[in-house]
Specification:
The protein has 415 residues and is an all-alpha fold. The protein has helices at 10-25, 33-44, 48-54, 85-91, 99-117, 133-144, 150-157, 192-203, 219-235, 246-250, 258-273, 283-294, 297-321, 326-335, 345-358, 383-389; strands at 130-132, 167-170, 173-177. The chain contains 16 helices and three strands. A three-stranded antiparallel beta sheet has the order 1-3-2.
């Protein structure tokens, strides 16, 4: 998993530098999206939108800039492009105008910690602590040697996961309720690197599993075949009916562009939508319920986790089709490990295929068969391989090969 302190790609660094230069040129105001976009295009022949979409992101959609992370895939031309503390850390040495923002934030964090540590509640009665904008900003500026106005400090504090809890604004005035703000993990922070190291532990996402260096083109369609056959053996029913041959065919194609990637995601979601479950309440939700009924507790937990992984694919497609769903999609991109690929659409699609295959969604045994069949994985035999060889092999409830006519593998033709 990437760290907040890891080096950023060159195009992201250029994005941050252009943005910081705009802040300095505007006398302490973040530049608008149109200016950043135009500068990157005319000066460096870079696509700001593509860079923004490919930026690494962490939990809570935290990344080097706050632009474009409020359910809006691309900022409007007049929207400001503010940097987060992580973004500022990469450019403040080269753009001194940004350094006071970092200094003020670190001082604000330390000041709030001291104030929160001084709360003295009664044994049976909690004590509230709220600080006003004017007084708190004055204290921060005095300690940090900065000259921020309350609105500037408010913008920084509400943009950082460490400090946004309890911050509220009413009638142009803001207050910070420190009563239950979670600041203890940042005790002792002195430098921006200290802060990012502590924040990294708070916003890190689970490590993605190791994925194969090579995944055969047919791996994903074969995974669907395997799952469908196992489901039919276990329940006596078809799991899905594919309405168009083009759907599984698209899953075998590479992705050379953003359009290709979106098309492959759409095809994968369309395949999942063919699952024969009621759409009321969500077909994948209903699949989770059914798996819970058919599997043991341990297997059911793993099955539900696998379905949740597949559900994220719909979040990705929702953003491709509906702009307002972009925040949900960004969370899915981060959770699926796609943010590190940036504009490498071929790598992103291969990773997504491998993630879907490796989810290893288990299926349930039938009433007289104890076998469970996971998604096959890239190094397992294909459904055609084991289907042909085992087409007439009976199995028993305990997994032995003693004849049990009621629990016989279907032939390949029977699929």
């Amino acid at each position: 998993m990437a760290s907040l302190l890891d080096p950023l790609p060159d195009d992201v660094l250029r994005f941050l530098r252009i943005t910081a230069d705009g802040y300095a040129a505007a006398g302490g105001q973040w530049p608008c999206w149109q200016w950043v976009w135009q500068e990157l295009w005319t000066r460096d022949d870079l696509d700001a939108e593509q860079i923004l979409r490919g930026m690494p992101a962490w939990e809570y959609d935290y990344r080097p800039t706050r632009a474009g992370n409020r359910g809006q895939r691309v900022p409007k031309i007049a929207d400001e492009v503010p940097l987060t503390i992580q973004g500022m850390a990469f450019v403040s040495p080269a753009v001194p105008a940004v350094q006071p923002l970092v200094d003020a934030f670190l001082t604000a964090l330390g000041t709030a910690l001291v104030m929160q540590r001084g709360i003295r509640p009664a044994p049976t009665r909690p004590t509230e602590l709220k600080v006003s904008a004017a007084d708190f900003t004055r204290a921060v500026n005095t300690s940090a040697g900065t000259e921020l106005d309350p609105e500037q400090l408010f913008a920084i504090l509400r943009g950082e996961p460490a400090t946004w809890h309890g911050i509220s604004q009413n009638g142009g005035e803001w207050t910070w309720d420190l009563t239950s703000a979670r600041l203890a993990p940042y005790a002792g922070v002195r430098t921006v690197d200290d802060y990012l190291a502590r924040l990294d532990a708070e916003v890190a996402l689970p490590q993605q599993p190791d994925l194969p260096q090579y995944l055969p083109a047919l791996a994903l369609p074969e995974a669907f075949d395997h799952l469908g056959l196992a489901w039919r053996v276990g329940t006596g029913k078809r799991l899905f009916r594919v309405p168009r041959a083009a759907l599984p065919a698209k899953l075998t194609l590479p992705a050379a562009s953003a359009e290709d990637f979106e098309s492959r995601c759409s095809a994968l979601c369309d395949m999942l939508k063919t699952f024969d479950f009621s759409t009321e309440g969500g077909s994948l939700n209903n699949m989770k319920v059914r798996l819970g009924e058919l599997l043991g507790d341990e297997e059911a937990i793993r099955a539900r986790d696998a379905v949740d992984t597949l559900r994220m694919l719909f979040d990705l497609r929702a953003a491709q089709q509906h702009q307002g769903a972009d925040t949900r999609a960004m969370r899915a991109q981060t959770a699926l490990g796609l943010t590190r690929f940036g504009s490498d659409w071929a790598g992103a699609w291969d990773h997504l295929r491998a993630t879907a295959v490796q989810s290893r969604l288990p299926t349930t045994p039938g009433p007289s068969c104890g076998s469970r069949f996971p998604w096959p994985g890239w190094n397992g035999r294909s459904p055609s391989a084991w289907g042909a060889s085992a087409s007439s092999t009976p199995c028993s409830a305990d997994g032995s090969s003693s004849p049990k006519p009621s629990c016989t593998w279907p032939t390949a033709a029977g699929r």
